[in-house]
Automatic annotation (TrEMBL):
Name of the molecule in the record: Cyclopropane-fatty-acyl-phospholipid synthase family protein
Keywords annotated in UniProt: Lipid metabolism, Methyltransferase, S-adenosyl-L-methionine, Transferase
Family per record: Belongs to the CFA/CMAS family.
Residues of the DUF7884 domain: 12-90
Organism: Massilia solisilvae
Amino acid sequence: MFTEMKLSAWSTGVRSKVNLPLRIELWNGQTFDLSSDPPRVTLKVSGPSALRYLMVPSLYNLGRAYVEGAIDVVGRVMDIINIGNELAASSAKVPGRLARAMHLVSNHTKEKDAEAIRYHYDVSNEFYQAFLDPNMVYSCAYFETGEEDLATAQVRKIDHILNKIGLQQGHTLLDIGCGWGALAIRAAQRGARCIGVTLSENQALLARERVERLGLSNQVEIRLQDYRDVEGQFDRITSVGMFEHVGVDNLPAYFGRINQLLAPNGVVMNHGITTTDIDSRSTPYGGGEFIDKYVFPHGELAHLSTVIQTMQQGGLEVRDVENLRRHYARTCATWSENFENNSERIRALTDQKHYRIWRVYLAGCAYAFSHDWISLYQIVCGKAGQDPAMMPWSRRYMYH
């Protein structure tokens, strides 16, 4: 009885702040509605011990309760995410973002980075195939007109990158964090000789199979290798959706290593997620804590200003910057829709915990990009101090 009275007082307090079409359903069948409107989401509480998550409903607590099975939620996934964010915002004692130092680790050894990558990417290739495009491009797509389907937009993203770096036949290209090989394969089809590196065994195996199947083994080498161990110099370097794993404190060394690997007059593209908080703090209301614990261990996002500064510290000159935040919001929303449409298949491919993690993660990312909590920038660089005469006069070359 005391527990139910406490929850009743809590729900009354929430209703006084915000109108949420949310129903709380207890283990005994009792319900509490947080709006006079019909509920769009029902949150089912498994037992009295689960109520502690509701008393402080940060995104971390709500996400943790769902993933660990303390609560269940019924409703459309985007409604769940929207209402969860409103609930967390209405109950936050300190609005805004949590400091990066509170929950993120900057000690990025090769062993820890490899372990984190395996945790995220080695769920199974079949798992990712269930919601990605046929080429399995796991990064922001490029909707040139806004009318493209996901598969077309991902091919256009790769071509957009290769055009931006001015890839030509005979160039050598290093793709850092090559995923399942789509970019390296596309570059090879345009006449380049490519090395792709990944720390995921599943990615490397499938990428090699694809390279061999397409008859590109003489042009593409897929390595299970840390970028810090790569030797040689390359005409072009791409890093797509990888530098988020490096750690903010390690960015100068990361870009410095890229500079060492870049041939004279070479060009590099860094395509990655950034935080929109100028102090490189995490996303609001505990969302960053949830991602760090359950999705991307040791991942860290830097603000664009920090990225540009550390590029300069690494000896690179920024030539071109493009914001693709809206494109990533569309990409994540499409992934989330695919995930929902293939939920039965995905449940059969993984356990309940991983299913729940990814369900809220994909939809939550769509929300975060849409609301400018995080962003995506493509940044084209060259070696600092390079003769400006080597650079094109305009951006026209990017849009063949």
